[in-house]
Amino acid sequence: MRSFSSFAYKHVLVLGLAKSGTAAAELLLDSGVSVRINDLKADEESDLVKRLKSKGAEVITGGHPLHILDGIDLIVKNPGIRYDNPIVAEGQKRGISIVTEIELAGQLHRGDLVGVTGSNGKTTTTTLIHAFLEADQQPVSIAGNIGEVASEVARTTTEEETMVIELSSFQLMGVETFKPSIAVWLNLFEAHLDYHHTLDNYFQAKANIMRMQTEEDYLVYNADDEAILSFLHEAASIRVPFSITKKVNGAWTDDEYIYFKEEKVMKRSEIVLVGEHNLANILAAVATVKIRGISNHAIQTILTSFAGVTHRLEYVTKKRGVLFYNDSKATNILATSYALRSFTQPTVLLAGGLDRGNSFDALVPYLNHVKAMVVFGETKDKLAVAAKQADVEHVKIVETMDEAVDAADRFANEGDVVLLSPACASWDQYRTFEERGHMFKQAVHKL
């Protein structure tokens, strides 16, 4: 496991353990850096804390006393910790640099780095890019918000290896020198305002993906997204567009083929991944790997077999002629609207979750083929209002996932689709969207 031979900071506070904090702490400790760890809920007697202490870490649990900042010249914070957290806010007042662990990964990784961000489609696009490179027998690893901690993966990568990283706005807020060789910017849509407070703050965080790039790097961007286009003047990198609506000097499509510039890459009819939004993700991934000279054969091999990632429009099963799909990763209205547009059949929609203060008026135009809605969580009443506005025939308010699936099964007839696409984060009832998706699939299989 590689570590830093030299590091710009000598005394680091790791704020929040979890996976990313643990990986950052271990990397820094192995690099000879003085590390203090602060985690509110960590167990002092756990094997993890004992191991970190044995490596020389100072571990403070049970609270966030401000004196933990004394002598600190860098804070590596868990991406989920907001900037109005008392320690983070005080650190900013003291002028202490504040980063997330992807900053460490970017400094440690020696090969090319592909960073993927956007309000939606990050996981699918990241997975596709990794799969394309792997199919072309290129040395490649995958990391970031997709599940593998980037700074941990970077400890084992080589100079010849490309690391593909899925990047959230939370992670991108905490960068200083982070610079992808290829930055992929998929889309920009209102999200996470409970964290960022303003839309501009959110957009500015996303734009960090390309701000450190030079004229030797590439920015793959959505030419159909006006918000992204408004940031292009800041890009020093080579700009490579993709579009599902028009011909561009990058990746584009007509009714029959996918193209890269003037080159036909493959027939659209051979692609098994459904949904217009996934077509955009495919084009973004194609543009990224064609920059690297990847063969069309490698792209075709993946796109003729890849049916999607877990919890993102994931086909679950067919019962009584009813198709069940798990789209638990749809944590905002845009993602759910994409999912609904992927089907023409009568649909029973299961939705609801954490209330971030928004209404669901923007979802109403996409409910035209929804015959029933089963709603739950903190937003259940708001979603019921949206269903009424859309003249959805049946609306059922429930408390649990088992109740939701049972109700959906009663509403659905042969040929219908039952779709879990919550349009909300999961944290009011579940620890993660993965847990929510697993609960849905378990309930479906029990029918």
Largest sheet: 6 strands, parallel
Quaternary structure type: single chain
Could you tell me the number of beta strands? 20
Beta-strand fraction estimate? 15-25%
Radius of gyration: 23 Å
Helix content: 25-40%
Strand order of the largest sheet: 7-8-6-9-10-11
Alpha-carbon distance between the two ends: 47 Å
Poorly predicted runs of 5 or more residues: none
**Principal-axis shape:** globular
Give the mean pLDDT.
95
Number of H- or I-type helical stretches: 16
Structural class: alpha/beta
How would you summarize the topology of this molecule?
Layout: E1 11-15, H1 18-30, E2 34-39, H2 47-54, E3 58-61, E4 74-77, H3 86-93, E5 97-99, H4 101-108, E6 113-117, H5 122-135, E7 140-144, H6 150-153, E8 162-166, H7 169-173, E9 182-185, H8 193-196, H9 199-211, E10 218-222, H10 226-229, E11 238-242, E12 251-253, E13 257-260, E14 263-267, H11 276-291, H12 296-303, E15 314-319, E16 322-326, H13 333-341, E17 347-351, E18 370-375, H14 380-389, E19 394-397, H15 401-411, E20 417-420, H16 433-445
Parallel strand pairs: 1-2, 1-4, 2-3, 4-5, 6-8, 6-9, 7-8, 9-10, 10-11, 16-20, 17-18, 17-20, 18-19
Antiparallel strand pairs: 12-13, 13-14, 15-16
Helix pairs in contact: 5-11, 5-12, 15-16
